Amino acid sequence: MNGEAEIHEGDDGLAAEYVLGTLPRVDRAAAAARARSDARFAARIADWEIRLAPLNDGFAPVRAPRTLWPQIEARIFGAPAPRSRLGRWSLFAGLGLGAGLAAAVVLTVLPVLRPIPDAVIAELVAEGTDLRVAARFEPRFGVIHVTRTAGPAAPEGQDYQFWVIAEGGAPVPLGLLREGELAAPTEVPPGTVLAVSLEPLGGSPTGQPTGPILVTATITGS
Amino acid sequence: MSELRPQSGDRQGPSGAGAAEPDPLAPLLSRVASGDREAFRQLYSASSAKLFGTALRMLGNRAESEEALQEVFVRIWTRAHRYDAGRARGMTWMIAVTRNHCIDRLRARPARTEDASALETLAAPGLSPEASAIASSEARRIADCFGQLEPDRAQAVRGAYLDGLSYEALSARFAVPVNTMRSWLRRGLMKLKDCLEA
């Protein structure tokens, strides 16, 4: 235990400082990024969160304003879909994904999209599948974070692939959606479509979707 | 990931499972992870006051705290599947989500604002109200371990954790160079860890 503790003291100190919150912005962002890909470092952070949790007694509860809950619900679950189903169909068909593919696409896109001051939240869903994918775009960092929140993992020998499709543009692959969070630099102006397709293991060999589009969301607003 | 936990028995993980107190938030979080909106509403009712208090203390600004709390609950909704009930109490995890978001906001602020709020929040002398709020045995344990730190270092750790103070703000407050403050805190934290695991 001692030998290991010595070897990793630097990491443990960094994890401690991350949890304490004192790291400068750049170092903090680097530590957060590392925690996403390094399970061991993430575990160190979680251990420090538990270790220092008794200090949470210092946070006195304050009743939140009543208006807050409806705002949270609206942000996550959204208002009634503003566009017609047909409208989405046309939009989708116009994306250049190909008629054959479009025919296989599961419909009824129920985007839950709210432009908000510091992030854009979208939930990718479709009728007939339990698969749900949450996307959060942080404009300050120009990074989108994507996570499968419900539904099965991709079947063995296949992968979910995440795409960003600029209005009038071709799908751009941003990565494979496996366990954990996918983070990728991008921009998502209004009109952008986010989509997840089912692809061969390792992703589409062509750089464009080859399998069915499973879930989508369209960025609305400004 | 659980095999990476330090093996220090039930003294480690004050919030871990197996504690005598049941954790009503853990089952709610697992329902939220599967997309249960009613569970999410109940979770909000049970935790929003604590999390709002957390944001208020760290950000020191009501409007920003409301905005932060919205973002925090969006994150809780989208990340609930990452919560591990065998590892931490539900509230511990949610406060960590809240603190992380508030710290990100604080670090994105211009330095001057931060310093001003630092002076304000640390104006209260002595060991601050949280000392009186300490109730649980785990909290007493950490209070005992804090007692072994030099008082100004213990206060610096609390100032960082509860008020989100940066190294710069802390070094200004305690009139020591930033590097000194950094080594105070690093050593202080490691001493705390040793004490908690002793």
UniProtKB/TrEMBL annotation, chain A:
Q: Which GO terms describe its molecular function?
A: sigma factor antagonist activity
Show the InterPro entries listed in the entry. Answer: Anti-sigma-K/W_factor, RskA_C
Q: Where are the transmembrane segments?
A: 91-113
Q: Which parts of the sequence belong to the Anti-sigma K factor RskA C-terminal domain?
A: 99-213
| UniProt GO BP | regulation of translation
Name the UniProt key words of this record, in alphabetical order: Membrane, Transmembrane, Transmembrane helix
Report the superkingdom from the record: Bacteria
GO CC: one term? plasma membrane
Query: Does Glycoprotein show up as a keyword for this record?
Result: no
Name this protein carries in UniProt: Anti-sigma K factor RskA C-terminal domain-containing protein
UniProtKB/TrEMBL annotation, chain B:
Residue ranges annotated for the RNA polymerase sigma factor 70 region 4 type domain, each copy included: 140-192
Example GO biological process term? DNA-templated transcription initiation
Describe the family membership recorded for this protein in Swiss-Prot or TrEMBL. Belongs to the sigma-70 factor family. ECF subfamily.
Q: Where is this region: Disordered?
A: 1-25
- Among the Pfam families in the record, one is Sigma70_r4_2
User: What name does the UniProt record give this protein?
Assistant: Sigma-70 family RNA polymerase sigma factor
Keyword annotations for this protein, in alphabetical order, are: Sigma factor, Transcription, Transcription regulation
GO molecular function terms noted in the UniProt entry: DNA binding; sigma factor activity
- Give all residue intervals belonging to the RNA polymerase sigma-70 region domain: 43-109
